[in-house]
Every structure is written in C-alpha cells, then in structure tokens.
Task: inverse folding
C-alpha cells in the first residue's frame, strides 16, 4: 500500500516562505519521478514542479519558476517544495504525486501520476 503524506502548509504573508514536505512509503521511491501540483478554490488542479528519480532533471510551471525549488532525499523517501516570495495567487491545496513506473521521466501531466497525497493547504495573505 503506497502512502504519500504532505506537511508544511499554513498561513503566510505575501513575500514569505514555506517549505512543503512529502513522505512516501513506496518501496521503489528512489526510482520514481515525483511531482507537485496545486488546486486553488474553483480552479482545476495544475502542475507546479517535478523532479526525476536522481534529481537530474527538474521542471517548473512558469508561474513559480525562480521562486519555488523542488528537491528530494531518496534515502529518507522525501520530496520537498521550497516556496519563496509567495504571492496571494499561490494560495491553494498542494499535492505531491509519484509516477507508478520506475525510471520514467517526470511529466507535467496530472493523469500520468499514479500515487497522490491528501494535500496540504497553503494560504498567502496580502
């Protein structure tokens, strides 16, 4: 049974920072591409960032590039999202996700991720 648990969300003022964490119980974590997505109220879930299994490749949505950094610790089976210079429009529930097949590249497409966490709320006040 695969479990993905996000943490680190909260309320922060515009310009502030948060670091989201995602703990994965999947045995083959070190071989899986990981992604972060978010869903704002009344909007579709959207891609935020993704990272390959040995961190060689990282991808970001244009809206967060330069402000957010995705990283991972394969020994601890953790993936992180460092969020700096936060804006009110970053307010959303943030989800981590894992691709189900090992050694497949990270993608920007939600449906290509097989395992999902329950999400953590990030609220940025103006």
Result:
């Amino acid at each position: 049974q695969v479990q993905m648990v996000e943490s680190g969300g909260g309320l922060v003022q515009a310009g502030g920072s948060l670091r989201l964490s995602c703990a994965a119980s999947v045995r083959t974590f070190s071989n899986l591409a990981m992604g972060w997505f978010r869903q704002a109220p009344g909007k579709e879930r959207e891609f935020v960032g993704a990272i390959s299994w040995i961190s060689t490749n990282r991808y970001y949505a244009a809206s967060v590039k330069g402000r957010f950094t995705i990283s991972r610790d394969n020994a601890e089976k953790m993936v992180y999202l460092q969020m700096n210079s936060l804006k009110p429009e970053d307010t959303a529930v943030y989800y981590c996700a894992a691709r189900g097949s090992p050694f497949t590249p990270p993608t920007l497409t939600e449906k290509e991720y097989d395992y999902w966490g329950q999400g953590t709320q990030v609220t940025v006040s103006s």
User: Anything to note?
Assistant: The longest strand covers residues 18-24. The radius of gyration is 13 Å.
